[in-house]
């Protein structure tokens, strides 16, 4: 029996998918040492050999830069789901008024829309992408501003806005538990600043493959959770924690 060090980025959907990976490892007789950290730090730990597996690297756009310095030291096992980032609005915001990011500058949208775009931690791909959107679409001149923060600040603020039927933009992604609760419509973003669709890739250090073993790696190589399933798994975790 080996102890496998499984790291995940410190966000709920990464935790949810890590639990699924860890369940496979446990079935093969392994003990699990799990850890979580923000994006950059978790990749640094992987590069330093402090974890054996990382759940998961969003490649190529969101996390490719973090993986690049040590990419030769790891192997890609499987794609767990296909994440992509959005700027979304609640479905009650009329699509005839706000269908694209540039529509946020239309007079009727300016009358109703909250100007704060509340994000999560600064290392997240959606945070980098959102800063670029505010700049390149000229949104700051109309009073829009993007701020990084905690998951709770981002998600709770959205849920409070929905409860009051306020117009709000949320920088989000698929999979994410809010999609299991609400209809969130993605705004068209024709400049392509949101990074497109990534592949959420389970990666392992090559020097850890032997202790994980062929049987466990074979089973993991067949794992595919999908966006909807990960959103549901995260929602279960969030509800259980409250």
Short description:
This protein is 36% helix and 24% strand.
Structure description:
- This protein is an alpha/beta fold and 242 residues long.
- It has 2 domains: 125 residues, D-Maltodextrin-Binding Protein, domain 2; 103 residues, Glycine betaine-binding periplasmic protein, domain 2 (D-Maltodextrin-Binding Protein, domain 2), CATH 3.40.190.
- Helix 5 links the parallel strand 6 and strand 7.
- Helix 1 packs across helix 9.
- The protein is 36% helix and 24% strand.
- The chain has 9 helices and 10 strands.
- The strands form 3 sheets. A 5-stranded mixed sheet has the order 2-1-3-10-4. A 3-stranded antiparallel sheet has the order 8-5-9, with helices on both faces. Strands 6-7 form a two-stranded parallel sheet.
**End-to-end span in angstroms?**
35 Å
| Oligomeric state of the chains in view | single chain
Q: Mind telling me the CATH superfamily name of the largest domain?
A: Periplasmic binding protein-like II
What is the approximate shape? elongated
- Strand segment tally: 10
Q: What's the helical proportion of residues?
A: 25-40%
Query: Hey, roughly how much beta strand do the residues contain?
Result: 15-25%
Please state the structural category: alpha/beta
State the CATH class of the largest domain. Answer: Alpha Beta
Uncertain stretches? none
Please give the CATH architecture of the largest domain. 3-Layer(aba) Sandwich
Tally of helical segments? 9
Alpha-carbon Rg, integer = 19 Å
CATH fold naming of the largest domain: D-Maltodextrin-Binding Protein, domain 2
- Major beta sheet summary: 5 strands, mixed
What order do the helices and strands follow? EHEHEHEEHEHEHEEEHHH
What number of structural domains do the residues give?
2
Please list the strands of the largest sheet in the order they lie side by side: 2-1-3-10-4
Mean pLDDT: 96
